[in-house]
Every structure is written in C-alpha cells, then in structure tokens.
Predict the structure.
Amino acid sequence: MALDALRATPIFAEVPDESLQRLAEQAIPMRVREGEFLIVEGDQADDLFVVVSGEFDVTKRSGTSEIPLARVGPGAIQGELAALERGKRMASVRAVTDSEVLRIPYHSLRDLLSGGPDAALGIISTVIGRLRGMEATLRQREKLAGLGTLAAGLAHELNNPAAAIRRSVDALDRAIAASNELHPPHSLTLLRPAGQVQLDALGRADAVDEIEGLIRDPEMAAALVDAGWTTDELRSAFAGLDETAAHEAAAWLAATATVQTLIGEVRMAGDRISEIVGAVKSYAYLDQAPVQRIDVCKGLDDTLVILRHKLKAGIEVTRDYADDLPEIEAWGSELNQVWTNLIDNAADAMDGKGAISIHAARLGSDEVQVTICDTGPGIPPDVASKIFEPFFTTKPPGIGSGLGLHISHNVVVRHGGRIDLESEPGHTCFIVTLPVTMPKSAAGAPPSTS
C-alpha cells in the first residue's frame, strides 16, 4: 500500500522504483481521526506526510482567526517545506474526515534527495507552488489586516474629538441657558477683557484666588481668569453696582466666558477631525494618479497620525527632516505602507515603551534616505540575515504573517531603491534609500506586493 500511495503522489512520479521501494519501506503508516491535527503551526518539523485517504484542511493562524489555505486529499504531501528546513511548521493541518497518512522521516527524505535529481526537482516544484499559493492568500490577508489597523486607529483617534464635541455642546447648552437667565446692565454687556495673558499653573491659581476674593465664587473666578479678566478690570466694571448686582454681573461674565471657551473647544475638536481625515486621504492618496511626485516627510507625518493611538501611550517620537529634501516620484500609498510596517514593527519591538527617531535626508542630487530607528532589544545577526524573507517572523504563531518586511522590501526595490538594516541591542535602524526619479522600467508597472 505504501509503495502505491507514494507512486500516486506527483512529486515521486519520476523516482526510480528501487529508490521509491526503499522510501516505502521506511514510511510509517498513521491513522488520523476527524478533527485531529496532523501538523500544528509553530511546532518543530522533522517529518513530512503523504495523504493516503481522507481529507485535511490547511490553515494559518492570524490573530484570533484561522485563515483557510487549502483542502487536500489523497496524493497530497504536507509539511515538506518545514521538514526540508528542519524549522517551525508554517501552517496547521487538521483532518476533515478519518484519514490515513504515511509519515516519512527526515533522514529517509534526505537519503532520497541525495540519490538523484528527479525527486529533488519534484519536491522543489511542489514547495514553490505551495509557497506561491500561501503568499498570495496571506498577502491579501495582510492588506485586510492593514485596513483593520487603519480602521482601529481612526476609530480611536476620531472618537476623542467627537466625544469632546458632545461634551462641549452639552455644556454649551447649559452655559447659554444660564447666561440667558441673567440680566446685567447694558453697559456691562459691551465690556471685554483687555487681553488674555498666558499664565503658568501657579500664576493661574493666584489669579483665581484674587478674583474669588472679589466675587466669592471659585467656579466663576476660574472661568473669568481663563477668559482673560483681571481683578482691576472687574472692579472697574462693577463700579457703582450694589453687591447683588455685582454678583449677577460676575455670573453673566463668567457664563459668557464659558460659552466662548466651549465654542473654542468645539472648534479645536472639529479641526482635529479635519486633520485626521486629511491625513487619511493623503496617506491613501485618494483621487490621485497612481504615480506622482510626493513629499516623503508628509507621508511620514501622515503615517504617524494614523499610528498615533499606538505610539502615544509610552513611545517618544522625534523627527529630523532635512530642509532641502526634494519630492520623489513614487506610488504614494505603497510607500506609506512601508513607513507603516517599519514604525509599527518598531513599536512592537519595544513593547510600547521606548523611543523612535525618524530622519530624512538628501543623498547627493538623486536620492533620498529615510532612517527609522528604535530603542528595542535589537535583531541578532542570524535573524537579521532572514528578516526580509517571506513568512519569516520572530513573533509567535498567529501574531505575525512574516510578510510585512518582505512586502516592504519588494515595494522599495520596485521603486529602484534599497532597504538596509543596522542593529545592536538598544538601537535598531531600517534605512530606506529611494531615487528621486523612479526607473522607467518601474514607473510603467502597476504596484504589486508579490
């Protein structure tokens, strides 16, 4: 049975009978019940499997969900890539029905590959096809995950000014009602403070105490100080009024000051929303040509706006942009995705606490260089050599797809640039160098993250 099952597997179709017979003798038959895992993502790989009967679902973890990659049946081979690398399993394989498989130990596979090129070519062909299919599926997922990150950031950022507007409008309604109930002298309604002086916390406290001594109300005193009134101005305004009239006049001035303050808060919150919406539109390059002259610094700033909810908790960001930085020719939205991946990875590497520095400089007359550094633990040399490979990730299974830096590398290279890494404990820098003018071969091609 083992020999027939192996012969029915496409990658072994050209293997000589003698070699295949030897492999069949070393194969270990296994039964897998419905719902059981044959392979678990993240486990250490040592063997590969050939499906004899039944069906299996192949999935890859992403966050809290499982992404379906394929459903395989008799003749399918599973786990070959991780087995060849002796690395971690890149996906999970679970039985859909009661199934039978052949387990082929690594040493048996190694002996087969050393016996001739036919089996090696067959396995390589299968591995390449599997990688292409997995990358295409996960690349789409990566795009959706990027949209999810963008949406989450927007929801968080827009919620704050929207909530501020709601609070201010509610308070504004009460302040206007309170002001309308008061009837100060007509001459008083024409008065305005001479000017608003910026006070530090101690100076403001002293000013509030001084006005409170005049009008006997701490809340009104605080509102009048914030509006710019001084004790001398109020004494002059209340001249000739009895104590009751002066108190009502102070209440009206305080209510009016509160109204003006709340209007200012609503205006600031509205401006904040406009800033966010403008940053998103610029970040995505909506309603613009695919290739255009772009301001790299603006793209970096827009990206920081998008990621502000993730950075503001415990990460200090410093920016250093050269004054003579020229605009460059690029796919703006694709390039902004590079900045997003690099800054987001830096934040993750520091576990939300540390510093990120962003530098943009001109190199000669035809290149721009962007350097994004963090104070994280650093990337060991053996990891750094694989950092741009597809599916390579140091994050636990389900946290990272291993495509972010791979996609970023491809985007930069497609622009005619290069991306380099310098890392030591406490200081990791990704250095992106881009031409001012895209190569003609790139400018005419549509963007792709493959």
In short: Residues 152-277 form one domain. The first helix runs from residue 2 to 7.
